[in-house]
Structures are given as structure tokens and as C-alpha cells.
Amino acid sequence: METEIVNTQALKKYYKLGNNTVKALDGVDFKVKEREFIAIIGKSGSGKSTLLHMIGGLDSPTAGKVFVGGRDLGEMDREQLAIFRRRNIGFVFQNYNLVPDLNVYENITLPVELDGTPVDREFVDEILRLLNLEEKREAMPNTLSGGQQQRVAIARAIASKPAIILADEPTGNLDTASGHDVLGLLRSVARQFQQTVVLITHDQDIAQLSDRIVHIEDGRIVRGSGNYAGK
Ligand SMILES: Nc1ncnc2c1ncn2[C@@H]1O[C@H](COP(=O)(O)OP(=O)(O)OP(=O)(O)O)[C@@H](O)[C@H]1O
């Protein structure tokens, strides 16, 4: 039987603003199987980023549980959570978040260095090749196009060999063609290294590249299409 790598149970995140309560997530049961490539789609303010942050242990829920790889994130203290995140989860954000003073190779290996684990140079070389970044290894981020910068951010997310990659609008700043290229590469690299991907998008065309689309509206999952078989 396939294992669930992500499992949220009755997940709620409420924000209090004065006398109002914003129900960013309002009872979300969300399951992801290992090696699935899932797109979460929904309008602005529907709760997509909040859900991704909860799965990534970047923020804690008001109620409910989040399990990642069978571990209950709510049972971990801050330090345990930080280590768990560094070793198991790769993040890709819309604005790349590259360190401007470090070149491409240094950006990619930074999280591994910070974790104090030896860099697997052959693995990084392979990622660079798969993401068509071999010739940019020494380049500084400000000399790269948006698509190239996003590929570096993906390489960085993959370099620590996380089981799961969480991507928040990874193609949001790219033109359509670059967005599709970047997504295609993310998909093939994730498949090659047997990684699970959960990505947020506004874009139906991008979502169509996934195994399964989950629709979120007003903090609730309203529809999930497809099956777990993968493509
Ligand atoms: N730190 C916060 N404090 C108060 N309200 C917040 C906070 N973070 C998010 N919210 C609210 O929670 C709701 C869900 O926000 P979220 O960022 O998850 O939506 P989203 O679907 O990712 O939107 P977008 O596509 O615009 O990024 C929104 O109404 C938002 O205003």
C-alpha cells in the first residue's frame, strides 16, 4: 500500500483581527501520497499559502493536526521542527529568495552547508545538468533571468534530498513559456528523485501539469480531482 506523506486532520487556522475572525483554514482534511505531484488552486485569500505553511511547519494551526512522513508536527518543539524542516522539506517561493552575494552553486548548497552535512557534489552536478544550469554554476543571481533564478531555487530545494517539495506560486513571476519550462523541469526532477510535490498556483494551465488538482475556497477543500496513481 502506498503511504501518505502528508495528512492534515480537521486543520483550522483562524486569525483574530479586532472583533473579526478570519478563518483562513476551516477544517481541512488533506492527504498526499508519496511521489504525488499535486496542484492546489484557488482564488486570492482562499487559504492556499496558509495550508502550505502549515504543512511546512512554518506556522502552527489553531486546531487540528498535521502529519508529515508520519510525524505529528504539533508534537515537535521549535528546534526539532527546524531540523525536521531542513532535512525533509524543500521550499520554493515565488520570489526565489536567492542570496545575492552567493553564486549559483553556493546558493544551491547553502542549506546543506547550514545543516552541517557534507555536500554530495555529484548529486548537485546532476541537478545542475537536469535543470540546464551547468553553465551558470559560477554566475551571480542578478545576472540570471527569472526562469533561471527559479531553476536555481528549485535546485536548492532538491539539493538536500527532501522527501517533499512545497512550492508557493513558483511560476508567478515568470512568463507563460518560462513558467511551463520550469514546471516541466520540476516535475521530471521530482519524479527522478522520487519526491512529492505540492504546489500552489492561480494558473489552470500550470495546474493541468499535475497528477491531481485540489480546489480550495474560503479555507475549505471544495473539490479534488484525479487519483493517486500518478502519471
Ligand atoms: N498573518 C495573518 N494575519 C491575518 N490574516 C491573515 C494572515 N495571513 C493570512 N491571513 C488571511 O487569511 C486568508 C487566507 O490567506 P492566504 O495567504 O492563505 O491566501 P492565498 O489563497 O494564499 O492568497 P494569495 O493567492 O493571494 O496568496 C486571507 O483572508 C488572509 O487575509
UniProtKB/TrEMBL annotation:
GO terms of molecular function: ATP binding; ATP hydrolysis activity; transmembrane transporter activity
Any one cellular-component term (Gene Ontology): membrane protein complex
CDD domains: ABC_MJ0796_LolCDE_FtsE
Annotated ranges, domain ABC transporter: 6-229
Top-level lineage group: Bacteria
InterPro entries in UniProt: AAA+_ATPase (IPR003593), ABC_transporter-like_ATP-bd (IPR003439), ABC_transporter-like_CS (IPR017871), MacB-like_ATP-bd (IPR017911), P-loop_NTPase (IPR027417)
Keywords assigned: ATP-binding, Nucleotide-binding, Transport
Pfam families named among the record's database cross-references: ABC_tran
Family note: Belongs to the ABC transporter superfamily.
Name of the protein in its database record: ABC transporter ATP-binding protein
Organism: Anaerostipes rhamnosivorans
Organism phylogeny: Bacteria, Bacillati, Bacillota, Clostridia, Lachnospirales
